[in-house]
C-alpha cells in the first residue's frame, strides 16, 4: 500500500525481481511479435506502470491506452501527464459515451452506485466496460497488470487466457508477482507512480469508489468498500458465461 523498498542486502528479492522482469520482457516481446496489434490496458496502477516502463524501455510495438471514466482522482490525471513527460508517451484515452452517462444519472442520480451492487456495476459498465470494448476493437491481444494476490476474485490467475467476451487473447504478465516485487522494480528503475499510493491507497479507481486502507487490510479493501469481497470487480475481467 506504500513504497516497499528492497534492502541493499536483500539479494533474494533483487534476484527474484530480475528473473521475473526478464520473463515479462520475453513475454511482451512474444506478444508484440505474434499477437499484433496488441495493447496494454493501463489503469495507471503500480503494476501497469511496471509494464509501461518495460514496454517503453524496449520500444515494443504495443499500444498503451487508458480509460478516463470522468471521475478519476486528480492524482491520476497528474500521473497521465507525468507519463507523457517521463516517457514521451501520450496515452490513448477512451471516454464513456455521454448519452449513456446522461441517461444513467437522470434515472438513478449522480452517486447511485452506492445504493446497490447492480447500480454500481451499471455505472462501471458505462464508464469502463463499454469504452474497453471500443479500445480493444481490432486487437489480437490485450495486456493487464493484474496479480493473483490482489483479491479473492483473482486467485489462480493465468498468465495467458483466451478472452471469450472480447474475442482475443488476454495476458497477465505480472500474475505471479508480489506487491514487494512490484515496488522494488519501481524504485530500482525510477518509475513514476500515483502519489496516492504514498497515502495508503494500494488500489486506485474512480475517486468516489476508492478510499485509503489501514495496516493489515487487504489491498483491494479500499475499492467499493461497502460491498462484499466477492463482488469487487468492475466487469472488465469477468468471464462470459
Low-confidence stretches: none
Summarize the main sheet: 6 strands, mixed
What is the ordering of alpha helices and beta strands?
A: HEHEHEHHEEEH
- If you compute it from the alpha carbons, what radius of gyration comes out, rounded to the nearest whole angstrom? 17 Å
| Helicity range | 25-40%
The overall strand count is 6
Query: How many separate structural domains?
Result: 1
Number of helices: 6
Commentary on this structure:
The protein is of the alpha/beta class and 241 residues long. The protein is built from six helices and six strands. Strands 3-2-1-4-6-5 form a six-stranded mixed beta sheet. A hairpin with a 4-residue loop joins β5 (160-163) and β6 (168-171). α1 (11-34) packs across α2, α1 packs across α6 (179-188) and α2 (46-58) crosses α6. The protein is globular and about 55 Å long. The mean pLDDT is 91.
Amino acid at each position: 500500500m506504500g513504497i516497499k523498498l528492497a534492502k541493499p542486502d536483500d539479494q533474494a528479492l533483487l534476484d527474484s525481481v530480475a528473473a521475473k522482469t526478464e520473463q515479462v520482457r520475453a513475454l511482451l516481446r512474444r506478444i508484440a511479435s505474434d499477437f499484433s496489434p496488441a495493447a496494454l490496458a493501463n489503469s495507471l496502477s503500480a503494476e501497469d506502470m511496471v509494464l509501461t516502463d518495460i514496454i517503453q524501455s524496449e520500444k515494443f510495438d504495443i499500444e498503451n491506452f487508458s480509460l478516463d471514466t470522468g471521475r478519476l482522482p486528480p492524482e491520476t490525471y497528474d500521473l497521465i501527464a507525468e507519463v507523457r513527460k517521463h516517457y514521451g508517451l501520450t496515452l490513448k484515452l477512451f471516454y464513456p459515451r455521454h448519452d449513456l452517462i446522461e441517461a444513467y444519472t437522470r434515472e438513478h442520480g449522480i452517486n447511485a452506485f452506492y445504493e446497490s451492487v447492480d447500480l454500481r456495476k451499471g455505472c462501471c459498465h458505462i464508464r469502463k466496460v463499454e469504452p474497453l470494448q471500443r479500445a480493444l476493437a481490432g486487437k489480437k491481444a490485450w495486456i493487464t497488470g493484474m496479480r493473483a494476490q490482489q483479491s479473492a476474485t483473482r486467485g489462480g490467475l493465468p498468465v495467458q487466457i483466451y478472452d471469450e467476451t472480447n474475442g482475443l487473447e488476454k495476458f497477465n504478465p505480472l500474475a505471479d508477482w508480489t506487491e514487494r516485487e512490484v515496488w522494488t522494480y519501481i524504485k530500482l528503475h525510477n518509475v513514476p507512480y500515483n502519489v496516492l499510493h504514498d497515502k495508503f491507497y494500494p488500489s486506485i479507481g474512480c475517486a468516489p469508489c476508492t478510499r485509503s486502507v489501514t495496516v493489515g487490510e487487504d489491498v483491494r479493501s479500499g475499492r467499493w468498500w461497502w460491498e462484499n469481497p466477492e463482488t469487487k470487480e468492475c466487469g472488465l475481467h469477468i468471464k462470459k458465461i
